[in-house]
Structures are given as C-alpha cells and as structure tokens.
Amino acid sequence: MKKNTITLLALMLSSLAFSQVGVNTPDPAATFDIVAKNSTGTTTNVDGLLIPRVDRQRAQSMASVPVSTLVFINDIATGTQAGTAVNIDALGYYYFDGSVWTKLKSDSGTDINIYNSDGTLPENRIVSQEGHTLSFTGTAANAFSVDGSTFSVNASNNRVGINTIDPQSILAVANSTPGGLVDAFSAGINNCGSPCGQGTARNITLFNGNGTNSQFASIDFIPSTTATGITGSAIKGIDRDGSNGYAGLQFYTRNATGFAPRMTIKSAGNIGIGTITPNTSAALEVTATDKGFLPPRLTTAQRDAITPKPAGLMIYNTTLNCMQYWDTATWVGNCSEAPGEGSVTELKCADAVNSGTLTAGTTVPAGVTSEIPYTGGNGGAHNGQTVPSTGVTGLTATLLAGNFANGNGTLTYTITGNPSASGTASFAINIGGKTCTLTRNVESSLAPPKQIRFAHYGTFTIGSDDFVMAPITSQLQSINNYGATGHYQGATGFTFPEVTLDELLNSTGAQLKAKYDIINVGRIQINQTGIDHLKDFANLGGVVIIDLMDEASGTAPLILSEFNVTGSPQFLSQAERAWFTTSATLEFSNVWGNTKGMGNISDQSVRVLTSQLPSGSTVYATESANPANSTIWTPPGYNGRVIIINSDHPFWVPDVIKDALIDTNIEKYYHNLFVYAIEKARGA
Questions:
Q1: Which of 59, 200, 265, 376 gets the highest tally of CB atoms within 10 A of its CB?
Q2: 207: nearest Cα among 168, 178, 187, 237
C-alpha cells in the first residue's frame, strides 16, 4: 500500500510539473508514457498495460460511456449481442465509438472485410461512384454472381448468364423452372411514335460489326433442350447494303434433306418460295419439282357468295372441277373444257316467266318459280346453283342439276325464303358460261293506305274534346303531315270516334275491329271483361294505346296485372313525377326523324320497374333519372299492337305540342309512335 501511494504521488507531482506522466521513465515523451521496466533480456517479470476486464453484460450495462473508452471483454456468456453490445461476439479488445462497442481487432489478427470474410449486410448501403469507376476482375467460371444463378458472370469465357451459372453464349437468358410461365426475355419501351413527334421505336436490333458477310444477322430456333443444339429453323438477314440500309429476309428450316432456305424476301420486296432468286418481275415466285400450288377450293354456291369480288380473284371450283377467275363481270376458266359440261349462247332473264307472289315479311309459299329462257344449249350437263337475293334480301333462287337442251330451252328456279322488305329482289344468274340478272317484285305486306279510325275513350286521349288535346289532333289532321301529299302517306286521313264504356264491356274484339283501327284509352274505369275485349281487338289486328292514370283506386293495377306485370306499381304525386327518356337503340319508326335517346318526352304517373314486366316485353322509353323504370313498353303476345304508356296525359305537353307543325323532338317522337300504330293496323 505504501508503494502504491508513493507511485501515485510521484505521478501527480510529475503531471503537475510537466503536464505529462511517465511510468518507469523520468522523461515522458507523451501525455502518458509507459516504459517497460525490462525491455530486453530474459527476466520473467511481467511488463505491460493491463486494461480493465469486464464481461459482455457489464459492457452492455454501462451508461454515458465516453467516446474512445477501451475495455477487454473476457466473457461473452453473459449479456446479449444487442444494443451497444451488437458487435461483441468474441473475447477481445473493444472501444466505444459513441454508439456501440467496436472490436479493436479480430481474434485472428486480421481485419474482417469482404476480402477475407463472409458477412451479412445489416442495412441498406449506397455506393456513390461519382466520376470514379468500379471494376471487378476474375478468371473463374462464376466469378461474380447475384443470388446464385439469378445473375452470373463467367469471367473464364467472357459470358453472362441470367438464371443460369453455365451460359453457353455471350448472354444466356433461361427460365429453367419446370412449368414456368414467366417470359425468358422481353424488351419493352415507352414510345408513342409519330403522334408524339417521336421516331420509330426499335425494341431489338441485330447487326454484324463485320461488313463482309452478306448474311449479317440471324434468329435461330433450336429443337433440342440446350442452347448448344443445332438450329432447326432460322430467320436470317440477307441482301446487305450497309450504305443504303437495304436488307431482305430468308426463312430456313431443317428436314431430312438438310438445312436450307425455304422462303426468301428480297430487299426489293419480291418473294420466292422454293427459290432464293425470285424473278424480279414477279411479286411471288413458287418453285418446286415435287409439289403444286393449291388455291382455295370452293363449291359454286360458295364461290357465288363471295362479295366483293376483285378482278383476278382465283379459285378452284369443286362443283365443276376447274380453275376459275373473276374478270369483273363473270367467272372465267377452263370449266367448259370438262367432258359433258353444258353451255348456252344466251340467258334471257328479262323474258323470265314468274309464278306466285312474294310479300314482304311473309315466308314464300310452295310453287313460286321463275323460268328463264336460253338459246344455243349444247345438251351438256349443269350442276344447278343456289343464288341469294340482293336488294331485297332473304330470298334464294335454286336450280336443280340437269342438262341443257340442244338449242333453246328454259331453266326453272324455285324461289324460297322470307323477303326482308318490299321492293325488288335481284338474283345474279351465272350458268352455262353466261350471266344475267333475274328480278322479282316483292309486294308490301301492308294494306293500302286508308282513312284511319282513331277511336278514344277517357280524358286526355287522341281525338277527345279536351281542349288540351286539340294541337296533337290538328297535327294528325294536317294534310301537310298525313295524306296523299303529306310527309307520311300511309294514311289518307283520320276520324276520331268516341268509344263508350258500355261498348267496351259489351262488344267483342271482332265487333270493335269492324268499327275501329286504333283505340286510345286513358284515365279510364274498366273491368276485366273490357280489358279482355281490348286484347281480342289487338289479336285481330287492331292497335291499343293505353295511358295509365295516377290513382291507386283506378284501374291501372288491374290493367298491369292483366298484362302480366308482377308486383305493385307506384303511383306518383305531381311532385314525384319524373321525365321519360327514349331508348338509345329502339324506336317505333323514323318517318319523322331519329328520336333515339331523347329526354323530357313526358312525365310519368305510374312507376313500374323493368324487372316487373313480363318476359318478352319491348321497352321504348325509361325514366330519365332511373333507367331501371320502364315508361313506354309493349307486352309480348300481340305482335306489338298493345302500347302502354305510364302517364295519364302523354300527348299533352304545354308549350311544346301547340300547333299543326311537327317541329319539336317530342312531337316527332309521338308521330313516329303514331306511324308505328298505323302500320300495325294496316297489317305490319
């Protein structure tokens, strides 16, 4: 104890005198200078500096540790490798760097770094190269890799592999996962081209740095399972002209005879199949010594159905077994050279004898024919033909196979089908080496125009004496709108008789049809018997337009129920009423112009969901704010001759329907509806 005290006192006096402390030296060379007592020799006395020794738990527990504090960890069985002790994983010297205890030197005597030790990156790192380079050199096959085979650099052979550590080419990309669906390679760009003033995009380019090879680039397809297999097929760049940027393509395949070009596209654009030197005057040259050219093979009926037919169009006719081409007017070929092939000098469609009547929308009855005379028959055979109609479509003229007469004769065509409209149906006849056009008139299915008996029952109906209905009635009566000189000539005029409730209840549908063509009912009191009579009237060809009133106590629920509407309708107050919008795809007619998708047609008094309507109903208008609600519709089963409008005054729209002119969208819509009703009453 005395020795320690004297030594400490000496140190203190020395420090006060010189501001430096020396141990075993009177002349310290630094702030604290320790000199070995025996720096040489064989003495067994211990010389050295003994740093404080603590275990890991003690170091981990220290608080407010000054930077550069030095300790020796003599036990790591205590404490945990966490917090300030995160680096304490072995016995040894550690200094405090202000945050954690840091190992002064590895146990092996070598600093731990990527050159001598494996390790784990504890957090993200960024290497800022700025203007400096970062190079790796090596000679091993897998000299540098990322996650095994995800990215591998073969420094031994100067190759790079993606998803492989054994690249067989300069850059090898593989998806070796069995059943893998990920694309092995893709090259995408973000370029909108000329609309954005950008150049033509090039995702992948192939070139050859040596300008002497005329075959300068190739895409090869390998049938085997490795990249080193032989090429089975390839696309090669040919006709190289580097100064002008010209090039062609050549397609190779391998078969039992070898690997050879099968199709060549020259830089000039001419194509050769079976030849690598296609004739410069031919767009396509096909060369072979063991194969032929097989054009499209069609029957005569299939050939005749082709439209349009450009001049030079070529086919092989399997009906006539010959080649044919279209010369802008007829099919030309060597068909007449076939043994027994019939021919005529002239076909006379203009002199055809027609039997039977064709009516629009009506299936053609049996026995409707057209007999076409011809001259100069050679007695040869013909295979018949089937010719579809043009103009009025839906018809077919069929000639059975047979023989031409020697000299003059006739060909009988049977007409079948259902004509789509009235007018002229044309049939392009082409037989015996001659052509002509057969025409047949298709009559209208409508009865001739007549005066329409437009009856009414109830208030706010067409023709009623309610003063608010006068404008719509005057529009129907105007000779500028309807009649022989009017805009629509399918009706010669109108009468507006009134139907009584007694008449609806006690007259049969046939009796009503004998007196009226169209009946408009609105705000009515009626029972099931009266509704049944209106149904019979519609089934017999009459047209019923029903305006539903807005009273739950009225007959609207009964009417809707009788026409198979499910559930209960909603009756709207004046404040609740909403406007109609017409269908964007359906319209009653377009005689008065296109009225699809129009809003504000009328306001509804009764709300019915489309889902409540019977299956097969046709909806012509819906509620503007809620298209799920139907407002004008026709129920199934009456050929569209029952029209239900969910409004009690649809034809009264103040300040819109106000004079004899039909010049507003609402007026045009309702008159399209009236034309529909008139034509239904005439038999459409």
A1: 59
A2: 237
